[in-house]
User: Fold these one by one.
Assistant:
Number 1:
Amino acid sequence: MSAQQPHPEDRPLTRRQALAREQGTPLPDSSPEADGEQDAPSAPRLPGPNPEPEDAGTRRDVVGRLASALKFRANRSQLLAGVLCALLGFAFVAQLQQTEDAGFSQLSEPELIRILGDVDSRNQRLEQESASLRRDEDELRSSTNQQEAAQKQAEERARSMQIITGTVPVTGPGIDVTITAQPGQLSASNLVTLVQELRDAGAEAIEISGHRVVVSTYFTDTPTGGLEIDGEPVDLPIRILAIGQPDTMDTALRIPGGIYDTVEKRGGAMTINQETSLDIDSTVPQLGSG
């Protein structure tokens, strides 16, 4: 018994047959050979993105407004204040750097020792001056004849001024220094250092090779390696007399890095003798004396 053939209308239509039926034209042969093509299998549909909810735009608007509100909005005053703060900070750091570059951190150990010695000497002199002023005050208060005490103090101060200005000879304890060197081994700046060290140690009067050293004294170098004091040549060796406390001035000249070390490092020699009494006879003319 043969199998029953399906009715032509019950067969599935090809794409061409479906198109012909819609157009009302005779249906073409439905066999695959006559059709010349087979229906291509439909591609599986990929899942698409989830549809956005209706309130998606509202949510984005809320988030945008919130982010905008949190952002820093700098007005002109805030920007100007920020610039001023930055400039102030830069100036402060620059000042600190400059201070540090010019401070004690750049000095060597001998230089620091020398500065410490100078500070100690100055403190001692200030304490002595303070004690002297207290004694003067007590004498003025306790003296039965205050006018006589005041006259005595005035005379002592006038004598001190004469010694400082170099207008009178001076006698007292001090040191006798001799510097032996070859031309070019000792410079004018070395003599300035010598005088400063003696002044810091409390020297009341100084004489260098017969020249009284006062405020107006100056030293110069010559082209041949020699030295001049107030424009007059000075022969080597050089002799320095200084009246004051001998031990204090001796210590000041021997501080590491001072004039004593400088002379020896340059091949010269320096001798220092402490004396109980020295005479400085050189003077400078008084102002207005012609």
Number 2:
Amino acid sequence: MRIIIFGPPGAGKGTLSKSLVKEFNIPQISTGDLLRQSIKVLDEIGKEAKPYMDAGQLVPDHLAIKLLKQRLTDSDTKKGFILDGFPRTQKQADELEHITHIDHVLNLKCSKAVIIGRVKNRRICLNCHAIFHLINMPPKQEGICDQCGGQIIQRDDDNPTTIEKRLGNYKEQTETLISYYNKKGILRDIEAEGNIDGIIKVAISILSK
């Protein structure tokens, strides 16, 4: 089962992906996480991508594609995967067609006001990348991950100025892909402003048909 999850930054793609990983026993692949790891170790891709990520801009297509190709060679992707944050542009979607086929596309729909409210309170574990929310899903111990005991931080790009840029980029480039996958007959919209448990149930129901 090969799945793409679409939605603007802060719509809940990461949280939903982690639940689907447990349900279907396939890995989540976040190009954002792959890029952040490359930047952390400052490898060749990380050095080139860092200025774009720091400015809240999309990284060049060739970098995201290169990282994805590398990840899909891992053995845990043989039964399928969940793509979170890829493709973001038509060029990436076209390239993805040459790499693999996609079975389902879930499109999370969420308003700008809700997104900004979520993002400013979002926190992430540096070690295992578990996601927390200071109001809706806070860690049991402040600053400490419930799952692995790692340090919880606010991502550099989770601030009002950067999120505005990211939303603008999403609307300009990624939303055009909604029509692209809708025409293929594999896209389903999911209202993503409600309770996360309800959103997860809807997604599992769609994917289980």
Number 3:
Amino acid sequence: MHKINNRITAREVRVVGEGIEPQVYNLATALRLAEERELDLVEISPTAVPPVCRIVDYKKFLYELKKKQKEQKAKQIQVTVKEIRFGPNTDEHDFNFKLKHAQEFLTEGNKVRAYVFFKGRSIVFKERGEILLLKFAQALEEIGVVEKMPSLEGKKMFILINPKKKK
């Protein structure tokens, strides 16, 4: 929360605002300047030396701050990671079905984390899982970029694919 008017504790402040020359004033002078304009003295940068204060209508200042935050939030892109699971013996039809889903995820701007899950003794087919994931990455190379090559973690072998940047 911002300190305003008499709640400001610094002795000297740098004052900025419309129609005001940015200067360092003692607190009493700065408060008088704000009062003459029928506005508030708002501390906007308390860590600066001396603290920076703006002469502005406090309600309007809060409104514009909220508006800016809302715009920034709207511009943010949420990146989610979608998972696709394979077995070491996944056949062609299932592979193509899951490939189609991965293509949809990447075009929507999501990351794809594909993994081969080895059950029981199937861990002896590690190479088969790695080949499957590399084939998967190769099929997606037009719309995705491999961020992390296949790596074995426990009973799962992962690969991470990012969507390509649009030009």
